[in-house]
Specification:
This protein has one domain: 3-Layer(aba) Sandwich (Rossmann fold), CATH 3.40.50.300. It is built from nine helices and eight strands. A five-stranded parallel sheet has the order 2-6-1-7-8, with helices on both faces. Helix 4 runs parallel beside helix 8 and helix 7 crosses helix 8. The longest helix has 17 residues. It is globular and about 50 Å long. The site of 2'-deoxycytidine-5'-monophosphate has 14 residues, from helix 2, helix 4 and helix 8.
Amino acid sequence: MPTRIITIDGPAGAGKTTVSKRLSQKLGCIYVDTGALYRGVAFEIMRQKINWEDDHVLEGFLETLDLNFLMEADRLVLMSSGRDISDYIRTPEISMLASSTSAKPQVRSALLDIQRNIARTKDAVFEGRDMGTVVFPEASHKFFLYADLAIRARRRFDEMSEETKNLSRVQKDMEKRDNNDSKRKSAPLKPAEDAVKINSTFLTVDEVVEKMLGYIEKAEQA
Ligand code: DC
């Protein structure tokens, strides 16, 4: 029997992570944060000081890259060459580098199998930018979650630790990342034609999750 795959795409700060986690709990399946993979690539590029703009160098680097998710209790832990790197991939520098390097088609194709292999055996909610358009065009249910830039920046700002807080910097970085992610040639951020679009600007997490559950239930009864 094919697995039940739910995709949630959208820009940074639209609430994808919180919503995806909660939805996966309600549905009793796993949750996969595909942005972590792109962050893992950026982390290794930074750590190894790779000149990623040179295609030849980038391709050599990707051949040696050993990224994977490890299933731990009910969550997936990002491993690089056997080391848990989850705690190092959430800095603003890694966010920006992940956005830039993810525009490279070589990076995107190096991560495709990891994502599709998980979906082969497990029901899952996949969160990202190109889940519904490129990675899982045949997904059971597709959502595109978005919100006004100012609200998204405020949400991200509220999650940050005191010493790194600067709202206008957060908003500027977010705008730049949105721009990179949606203007790139390779798998740009955009809703799949058959995705349900949800504007989370004035909705709570619970309201978004309830809406999604409603769509899923309706579609599965049809
Ligand atoms: O979801 P996130 O903010 O952790 O993602 C970090 C960057 O990775 C994002 O700016 C673009 C890239 N990304 C992508 O290109 N495709 C995905 N499916 C997920 C993330």
